[in-house]
Write a structure and sequence with these properties.
globular; 22 helices; 479 residues; mainly alpha
Length: 479
Amino acid sequence: MASDNTAALLQRTESVPRPKMSGGTTGPLLVAVFAAVLGMLQFGFNTGVINAPRSFIENFIKENYEVNSETMFGVIVSIFAIGGMIGCPLASWVADTRGRKFALMVNAAFGVVGAVLMGFSKMSTSLAMLIIGRFLIGINCGFATTASPTYVSEIAPIRLRGAFGTVNQLAVALGLTLGQVLGIDVILGSDEGWPWLLGLAIVPSTIQFFMLILAPESPRYLLLVQRDEEQTRKVLSNLRGTSDINDEIKDMHDEDHAEKQEQKFSIADLIRIKFLRTPMIIGIVMHLSQQLGGINAVLYYSSSIFIKTGLSDGDARLASIGVGSMLFIMALVSIPLMDRLGRRTLQLVGLGGMTVFSVLMTIAFFTYENNTTMSIFAVIFTLLYVGFFGVGPSSIPWMILSELFSQGARSAAVSVGALVNWLANFIVGLTFIPLSDALGNFVFLPFTVLLIFFFAFTYFKLPETKNRTIEEVTAIFKK
């Protein structure tokens, strides 16, 4: 799922006293935010869109190539995550060297090229075009999960950063649902329609590119990297709708000064130094819990799963729409709960619920034959499994690393977490089909075992970070 760097950027300023900021929601700010989060919508869309057309893509492969169609479909699904692993660090480098806006515009080009290759792959009878297009879209989405939240958090007023940060998760869920809706039979879920379905990824990238022309560069980048205070003031005044921006300029200078005073740690330091190694292990396990709990098996293959429960192809695609819808609803529900119940509590509730319903899904898979009621329950259990994922595991792994590390180590820790997350995503996407063939109705039991481990690890190892400063959290690991 999508990464959320908003918490990391919020933590940068935690130790710096801040005056009250002026300005609120303005037209230029909304345009810039909407342009940025189209990248996260693209991520959700391309995660969910590959689900429905599986049978048509496999038929295309069978008709034109003498290869195992199921294996090649697994490659098409998983190559997306390889692109994501490349896109994350690439985004950080481009954004830091050329600016946030430039990085987003470059990324939109990846999206356009990838969409064109996928859209014309069947017409060209080219499996290579489909795989390369999916790979480029993966770069686009990995890039977006780093660059989009960074840009949004840097242009938003401090008091609205949390609210605007949640828009990223909502955009992912909306894109996922949109991809699944468009994949139903009566729209583009057909042998003729699937290339158009995949090619529609060109739409958000094209709109994003032209909207970004109207959007400003990040004020923080202009001030702290380019050292152009005059241009920073112009951009901030336009974004805030007021010329009363001196406090915000001062706040950015103070933040920069505090950051420079702190010792920097490398990725090697995260392994070598014990008080950094422990939170790094916790963060890695949290990211593994997001992917190896089996959620992407559902997101990538829910239509196939529902067909196995006895639903027709058409009904299975309709049921898959509920997966994205459930994630969207739970993203809304979890927003007020995050600071009320705490990260640890929500992670435990989410993992516990996923464990229970993965067991019930397995039971339903064994009892659906000639039993319409159990087919319906199999769908319900799957949707509830997704719902509990949305309670905590969907967002907390991305958030927790920024709350376990001080600024000097945070960048390295978040980079490791993102790499682990995309790598686990790749493993699940590549192995689920052969795992399903080998285990049949027991396919979710390995995920259940892992979920039990993740629940126990979280219970015993993850500290609560709610209402604690970064100094209080890091002190826990220094004892």
